[in-house]
Amino acid sequence: MSKYYDMFSTYNSEIKELYSFRTKNDERADLIIEKSDSLLGQLRTTFENQGFTCNQEEIEFFKEIKPKIIAQRIANSMLLDLYLKQHVGKDEHESNKVEKLEKLKSYFSEYQEFYKYMKSGNCGRDNLYFTLGATKNDMITKILPDIDRNFSTGYDMLLANMYAYDILTEKAESLDENEYKPIPQLTWTLQKYDLVELILALHSYKAFNDGKTDLKEVASAIGQIFNMNLNDINRASFSIKNRKKETTKFLYDLAGNLNQIISESNRYKFKSPKLDD
C-alpha cells in the first residue's frame, strides 16, 4: 500500500465520520473543505519530495486518490453556498441547485468517451489518462484552464468533477428535508448497565445497518444521544454476559412494563359502555 493511499485512507475515514454525525450542514461542509485543502497540500509536498515509486502508484494517485479528495472539495464548496443561501425564495433556491448540478453535468456531455471508459471499469487507457508524461488534450486545458500540469493529468480533474456531481446530487436532496435538527437534551436517568443491556440486545438483533456496525460505534452514537459515557462498552458487556442470575433483568422489566401498558390500554378501549337507565 502506497504512502499516498495511507494518507487518503485516514482522510476518507474522517469524511465518512463527518457525514454520519448529526451536525449543522454548513459547519460540516466547511470542515470537509478545510480537511481536503490540508490533505491536498500534504500530498503535493510528498509528491515534490518523493515522487512516485512506480507507474502503478502514479495511476492510483491520479485515478483513485486525488480526484476523490477534490470531488469532496468541489461538492462541499457548492453545498456550503447552497446552505448559506437556503433561506432565500424557494424558486431561487431551486434554481441555484439546478445551476450547480448542470455545471458539473456539462463535463459528462463534453467528455462522453472518457465517462463511458470510467463506467466500464477498463484499465487499458489508464496510462494515457492518469500519468503526467502522457500528452495533454488541448480541449481539457481549454475547459480547465487552471490545471497545474506539474500536478495534474487533466483527466483527474474531469473525474473529480464527475464524482462531485454524484456527491452534490445525493447531498442536495437533503436540503429540502431539513436534514439537521438539534437533538433534544436527553439524559439517561436509569442505571448505566441498564442502557448497556439495551444496546447489547439491539446490536445482537442487528437493529442497526443490518448488523454491520461495530458495538463501540453503536455505543458511541447512543451515548451522545443520552449524554452517557459508554467508552467502556466492551468491559460492561462482558460483565453482563457473565452475570450469575437475572442476566437480562432490565429488558425483562421493560417488556413487562410495556405489556402492562398495552393490556390496560386494551381494557379501556374494549370496555363495554354503560346502558342508559
Task: Describe, in short, the structure shown.
Helix content is 67%, strand content 0%. By secondary structure, the protein is mostly helical.
Question: Care to describe what's here?
Answer:
With about 280 residues, the protein is mainly α. The chain folds into 2 domains: about 5-175, no CATH class; about 190-270, no CATH class. Helices cover about 65% and strands about 0% of the residues. It has 12 helices and no strands. The radius of gyration is 27 Å and the shape is elongated. Mean pLDDT is about 85; it is low at about 270-275.
Class from secondary-structure proportions: mainly alpha
Quaternary state reads single chain
Helical fraction equals 55-70%
Ends: how far apart?
A: 88 Å
Task: Please give the largest β-sheet.
Answer: none
Mean pLDDT: 84
Number of strands: 0
Computed over alpha carbons, the radius of gyration is 27 Å
- The amount of beta strand, in percent, is under 5%
Q: Please give the domain count.
A: 2
Which features characterize this protein?
277 residues; mainly alpha; 2 domains
Question: Could you outline the blueprint of secondary structure elements for this entry?
Answer:
Layout: H1 3-20, H2 25-50, H3 55-84, H4 90-110, H5 112-120, H6 126-129, H7 138-143, H8 155-172, H9 192-204, H10 215-225, H11 233-241, H12 249-269
Helix pairs in contact: 1-2, 1-3, 2-3, 3-8, 4-8, 9-10, 9-11
